[in-house]
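Incident log, structure service

09:12 report received: a user says their structure output differs between two submissions of the same chain.
09:20 pulled the input from the user's history:
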Amino acid sequence: MSDWEQRLFVGGEWVEPGHGYYDVINPATEGVVGRAPEASREQVYAAAAAAREAFGAWSRSRPEERAGILARAAGIIQRDAAEHTALASAESGATTATAAGMQVAVGAARFRRYAKGALEPVEEAVPPQINEAGPMGRAGVFGALAVRRPVGVVTCITSYNNPWANAAGKVAPALAMGNTVLVKPAPQDPLSVYAMAAALEEAGIPPGVVNVVTGSGPGAGEAAVDSPDVDMVSFTGSTAVGQRIAEVCGRSMKRQLMELGGKGAALVLDDADLDSAVAGIGTTFSFYSGQICTAPTRVLAQRGIYEGLVAKLAAYARRLKVGDPSERGTVVGPVISAAHRDRVESYVELGRKEGARVVAGGARPACPGRGFYVAPTLLADCANGMRVVREEIFGPVVVVVPFDDEEEGIALANDSDYGLLDYVWSGDVARAFRIAGRLRAGGVGVNTVGRNMEAPFGGFKQSGVGRDVGSYALHAYSETQAIVWPG
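09:34 re-ran on a clean worker, output below:
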C-alpha cells in the first residue's frame, strides 16, 4: 500500500471515513497511487455543520490574521514542493514539469496572492444623494457605503485536471473574504487537496474553517451541495453536472460560481503569423493532454492559409513525445482514466464517420504498453454541424473548420453552446481587437494563449456563471451590503 493514504478533514480533525477507502489510480502506470476516504452523507453534513460553526469567528477575524495564515500556507506548500509534485504527477498524470510549474507552484502563488487580497479594501463610497422632505423623512444629504461581506459556508467542488491550482483558486479567495469552506475534490486525484489542507492546518487555520471530504461516486458531492448549512457552491467541471448543481442551488437560493465546459474557437485570419498560431493551438495537444476547458480546440482557418495551417499543425502534433510523464522529454502524458480515454477515442471515430480527415494521430499509441494514452489528433475538413466540432472532447484533439471571410468566421465562432475563451490570430492588431469585441466569450486571446492572472475569468452561455481570478474572485465570494446614513 502507498504511503499516500488520507482521512477526511472535518472540524480540524482527521477522521476515519464512514464507508472505507477507494484506490486512486496512476493514469500512466495503472498502479495504485494511494487510498482516498469514502465519506458518508452524514459526515459531509457534519463537515458543513463544522464550517457553519466556525464561520462566525472567522468572518469577524482581522484581515491581517487571515492574510498571515494564507501566506504561511503558501510557504509550507513551497517548502514541500518536491513531494507535492510527485503526488500530483502520480495521481493526475501530468508531466513532472507541468505538475511542478503549473499545479503546485500555481497553487502556492494563489495562496500568496490572496494573502494580499485579504487586505484589499471591502468598502466603496457611493456618491451622496440630496433627498427632499417626504414620506421617507426630512430633507437631507444621505451618504452611503457599499461594503462586501463574506457569503458564509462555501462548498468548493474542484476539477481533476489541476488539483492544486483549481482548489487553491477557490479556497484561498473564499478564506481571504472571511468565508469558511467545505472542499469536495474530484474523485480521480483528491490526495493533493488533502495535502493542501494539511498545509493550512500547519499554517494555523482554526478548526472548521477548512473541511475536506471525498468519495468515488456522486454521493459526497450531492451532500456537499444540498446541505442546509451551505450558502454557496463554487464548481468547476462539466456543463451537465453544473446544470444539476444549479437546480439544487436554485431551490434554496444558494449563490453559485460555475466554471463549466468550453470549446474555444481559434480564428486564424489570412494575415496571421502561422507559426505563432500553431504554437498556441498546439498547446491543446500537450497541456494536460488536452484536458483543459480553455484550450483552442476548434480552429477556424481562413481559406487562404487553411492548407498551410493544417500542415503545420500536423507536423507539430507528430513531433510531440507521448509517454511516461516522469521521463525527461515527455510532452504528452495520459488522460485521467481508461473510461475517459475510451470517450476521447470514440469522438475520433465519430469524426471519421462524420467525414473529417484524420491528418495526425487517430490511433492509440503503441508505446508505452500500459496507461491511458491518446495520441495528439488533428481532424481537418470539418463542418460546424459535426458533433466533434460542437461538443467538448476534453482530450488532445483539435478540429479545423475552413471559412471564407471575416463575417463568416465570427458567425462560426459564435455558433456554439459554449463561450469560455476564444482566440484571434491576425497580423492586424486593430482588426483582431475589433473581432474580439464581437465574440460571445468570457475572454479572448489576441495572438496568444497566455493569461493575465488578474483579469476576470468565466464564461458566457453554457460555459458558466460569474467571474473569478484576481480581485474578481474576492467579489465572487462576497455579498454586497449597503450602509446609508444622514449627513
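09:41 both user submissions now match this output. Likely a transient worker issue. Closing.
09:42 reviewer note: The chain has two domains: 4-260+464-486, 265-457. The longest strand covers residues 140-150.
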